[in-house]
Amino acid sequence: MTMTYRGTTALITGASSGLGTEFARQWAERGADLVLVARRKERLEELSERLEQRYGVSARVIAADLGKPGAAAALRAELDGLGTTVQTLVNNAGFGSHGPLAEADPARVSEMVQLNVMAVTELTRAFLPDLVADGRGALVNIASAAAYQPTPAMAVYGATKAFVLNFTEAVGYEVRGSALTVLAVSPGPVRTEFFDVVGTQDAAVGSMATAEQVVTAARRALERRTTPPSIVVGLGNRISSIASTLSPRRVTLAISGRVLKA
Question: Of 81, 127, 228, 243, which sits most exposed with the smallest number of CB within 10 A?
Answer without folding.
Answer: 81
